[in-house]
Design goal:
By secondary structure, this protein is mainly beta. Helices cover 14% and strands 49% of the residues.
Length: 392
Amino acid sequence: MADSSASPPEHYRTSHRHSRRRRRRRIRRVLASLMVLALVAGAGFGIYRLWQQGVLPANQTSEDWYEAKSEQRLQVQLPQDDAPHASAMEWWYYNGHLEADNGSHYSFHFVVFLIDQLATHLVAHVSLLDQQTGKHYTDQKRTTGAASKGDASTFEFDLGDWHLSGRYGEDRLRAVTPDFSFNLRLKQSAPPVFHGGTGLLNFELAGQSYYYSRPRMAIEGALKVDNEILNVKGLAWFDHQWGDFQVNQLGWDWFALQLDDGADLMIYQLFDTSGLPVLRSGTLTKGGTTTLLSAADFKVTNTGYWVSPNTGIKYPMGWTLDLPRQAISLRIAPVSSDSEFDGRTTSYKVYWEGAVRISGTQMGRGFAELSGYRKDTRDGPSEPPDKPKGTR
């Protein structure tokens, strides 16, 4: 019988060592595989989180990515951003359509510019169109300093007997001029719209702009015109825009349209001083849902021109607007072509600002603003830039 205390044979010890090495190698391979899986899983989760936040466009259409980024990266916060900002240019703008208790119709625009370039000053413009007589009244003011008396979430400007204030979508407008006066209360009746999806637009070399609208605000108040005081009701559109962008480097065609089916449509076509395109975009909002519109989603065609007898500037006048995906085709006509605003004594700018009527697949009302057009003595009394963005 063999002695139990004797050492195992050499071949047994060798086999045992090989077996242990194999087990260690298997364990190392399993651990390495687990580490690789953990890294892949971690990277995948990180990519998924970036995808959710709209940072990566992987496996998304450009429209889906743009909407996801807009939802996750909203750059405007309300009501805080109703208040003034430390920026080179900022404005609070209203247009509106009024119906008097006697059945007569009027339209107006009222805007305060806060300009902080070398020196801080305020500029205010107001206009009224009497749609019965076609008379277009304008007035303007300029004052030094930033005169907002609002708190951190509101704005309030007093320029003598002109007053403009907003508090959580409940606003007050008052203007007294030699030709007309109004005192209006406005209340938001549709959610705000953040342009570009995030509320931040890129104007390329001209800078960036924060921008949102309240596209429907119900109006009640009083209007005095031709020494008659009228009770009025109506619908307003509010814009608030600010940033360190250079207005003098840009021109634009801007449309704010309130359709009778409850949809609100804004289109803007920006061009530089040579007429080259800078940005064509827009929003279509209905029932609280906003669709972002890129340049490929719409086509604006002007159908005529109007030459200002005061400045000689030639403006496009009358348009068709087509949105094929939404099966929308609109005809846009000015209520009065003679709606130029000569702001050279206060803002050094001349622009066209007027009410429009809408027909076609939808009916409605709205406003258009045309800026950056100029005299051109080469081919007649005046001409717009060579090829404004969106002109086809």
